[in-house]
Design brief:
74 residues, 43% strand
Length: 74
């Protein structure tokens, strides 16, 4: 079983996957993870999950950030 290691503190910066969708119009953040390499390996899985929910993906980026919210709806 693969384990995903997340930063335990909400106040720390970390590697996140930022996905913008058009349908629904949302900006999603997945993370924060401890390494850029780990995020690269996981990115396709998060995109696939959103596509299975019929989301229209506009962009998917890896960022080193600390989002204040994990999902922003418009």
């Amino acid at each position: 079983m693969n384990q995903i290691q997340l930063n335990s503190s909400g106040s720390e910066l970390g590697w996140c996957i930022e996905i913008l969708t058009a349908q629904p119009l949302c900006l999603y953040y997945f993370g924060a993870f401890t390494s850029h390499q780990e995020v690269q390996q996981l990115k396709a899985g998060f995109i696939e999950d959103l596509l299975l929910e019929s989301a229209t993906i506009l962009s998917a980026n890896i960022r080193f950030c600390q989002p204040s919210q994990l999902t922003l709806k418009r």
